[in-house]
Design goal:
mainly alpha
């Protein structure tokens, strides 16, 4: 694995963090960003691109992983649990990567990725009450474990 690949994932993680936060901004609050950038689709459909870009291939399995991650980002599972469950939401975002098994990725690394996203999302949301910190952190750590898939 090259240092450039790791650096690339870190840069994409920063971009993912920004997109994640943009998708969480209020559309009603005056802000310098245009309203179209403050819709949840920015989070749901752009963050998966940044997460999967380092392992880009011309496979339909990658497309399935993209759609699964975008779908996982559309909910915090509050209908199931009665509250926003960031532990489970993070885990499901990690599980969305399991179609990558069919591209030759190691299932143990995919499981570690899912659990690490789960733990980070759950812990950061348990200890912080700042939306700014939480959303940037979730967006960053959604993408960062892609480093595991470079092995």
């Amino acid at each position: 694995m090259e240092i450039a690949s790791i650096f690339g994932v870190i840069v994409l993680s920063v971009i993912s963090a920004i997109a994640y936060r943009l998708g969480g901004l209020s559309k009603d609050t005056p802000h310098w960003l245009p309203v179209w950038m403050r819709h949840s689709w920015v989070r749901d459909w752009l963050c998966p691109i940044f997460c999967l870009l380092p392992i880009l291939s011309g496979s339909l399995w990658l497309l399935l992983a993209y759609v699964a991650l975008a779908g996982a980002l559309t909910t915090y599972w509050d209908r199931l649990f009665g509250y926003d469950n960031f532990w489970f939401a993070g885990f499901m975002c990690g599980v969305a990567g399991f179609p990558l098994l069919f591209l030759g990725h190691n299932w143990i690394l995919l499981a570690i990725r899912a659990v690490s996203i789960c733990l980070f999302w759950g812990i950061i949301c348990a200890i912080s009450e700042n939306d700014f910190v939480e959303e940037y952190s979730r967006g960053f750590f959604l993408c960062l474990p892609t480093i595991l898939l470079l092995f």
